[in-house]
Amino acid sequence: MSNTNSTVSQSSILTVGKNASLYDFNTINAAVTHARQYCSKTNRVVIKIASGTYNEQVDLCNNPGIDLIGEGMDTTILSYPSTYPNAPIYTTGQGYFSGLTFSAASGSNSYGLHYENGSTRISGTTVFRNCKFSSPHNAIGCGLGANSTLSLSSCVLQGTGGGAPLYLHNAAYANSPNQVFEMFDCVLYGKNSSSNESVLIDDAAKFYGVANSTAQLRFSNNRMISSTKVIFRESDTTRYPYIPVSNKNITLNPSNTGNTTRALNYNEGWKNGQAYVIKSEQPVYNASYYLYSVPMENADKYNITLTAVNIPGLASILSDCSIHSTSANGFVIKDTNPNGTNFGMEIAYTASLKG
C-alpha cells in the first residue's frame, strides 16, 4: 500500500514505514518500484526507511539510481528466507546503503548481502556504511566484477552457522580488470570453532582457467572475533592461510594494516628476507654442527624456508643448512658444513604465516 499523491510522484526522497498514514510507502519494494519509474544514475532517489522489521527481499542488481537509508542497524532490519538470489539484499552498480541490518532468516546457502558482478560487468561503486549482515551461511557473498568496487566501513558481519562471515572471489570471466573490495573498521564474528574461518577467498579465475581477472583487496583496522583464520583457495586442493605473493590475480593493497587477522595485513602472510652472518663471530658450535641466529620479529608464527645460503664468492651450502628453531625474536639456522668456518654467509628465506 502506498500514497501516490503529487508530492511523492517524482520526489528525490521517499519514506517507508509501517504506518501508511505517516510515510509514503509501507514496504521497501513498493518504494523501489515507484522510484524505478523516474530515477537514474545521475538523478538518484533516496529511500528513507523507518525502524521496524521488513520481511522483504530487495533486488537492486544493476542499481538504477536508488539509495537506502535506515534509522540504525539495530532498529531497521530486512529479514528474508533463502530463495534466489539467496539474500534480503542483492545489488551491484552504483549505490549507497546505511543504517540497516540485512538478515538471512534461514537457508544453508544464504547470504545477508549477495553481490555478484562477474557476468553482468556493471561498473560502479557500491557502498555500505554502518550496516549489519547476518546469515547461517556467509554474512556476505561477494563476486567481484570488472571496473567495480564493493566498499564496507563500520559494518558488522556475523556468521551464525558454519560459514565464514565474508566469502569473496574475483570474476570467473576473462578480461575483467579493476576489481576492488575494501573493508574498513568492521567487525567479523565467526563461529567459535578452530575449523572455521573469518574470511574465505577464492581465486575463481585460477579455478576456471581464465586470464586477466585481477582484484585488489583493501583491509584496514578490522576486528575478527571467535574465528581469526583466513583461507585462500586456488583450487579445490590448494589452500593457504594467507594470500600468497606468487598469486597475480588477487593482491593485497599496501594500506592493509591494523587487522587482528594477521594474514590480512600487508606482507604479514608472506615474507621475503635476507640476512648476513659472520661464522667466526656468531656461531655456537655443538658437536657436529653450527647454529646461527637470524633476527626476525614473530618468527615463531611463520613457516620459514631457506632459499639460499652462500659463502660469497665460494659456494652454496644450502644443502647443509636447515631451520633449527624459531622464537618471537628470530630463527636459528643449523649448519652441518665443516668448511669455511671463518667466512660470512649470505642467507635468503621466505616465510609463510602458519595456519
TrEMBL record:
<dbReference type="Pfam" id="PF01095">
    <property type="entry name" value="Pectinesterase"/>
</dbReference>
<dbReference type="GO" id="GO:0042545">
    <property type="term" value="P:cell wall modification"/>
</dbReference>
<dbReference type="GO" id="GO:0030599">
    <property type="term" value="F:pectinesterase activity"/>
</dbReference>
<dbReference type="InterPro" id="IPR000070">
    <property type="entry name" value="Pectinesterase_cat"/>
</dbReference>
<feature type="domain" description="Pectinesterase catalytic">
    <location>
        <begin position="23"/>
        <end position="104"/>
    </location>
</feature>
<keyword id="KW-0063">Aspartyl esterase</keyword>
<keyword id="KW-0378">Hydrolase</keyword>
<protein>
    <recommendedName>
        <fullName>Pectinesterase catalytic domain-containing protein</fullName>
    </recommendedName>
</protein>
<dbReference type="InterPro" id="IPR011050">
    <property type="entry name" value="Pectin_lyase_fold/virulence"/>
</dbReference>
<dbReference type="InterPro" id="IPR012334">
    <property type="entry name" value="Pectin_lyas_fold"/>
</dbReference>
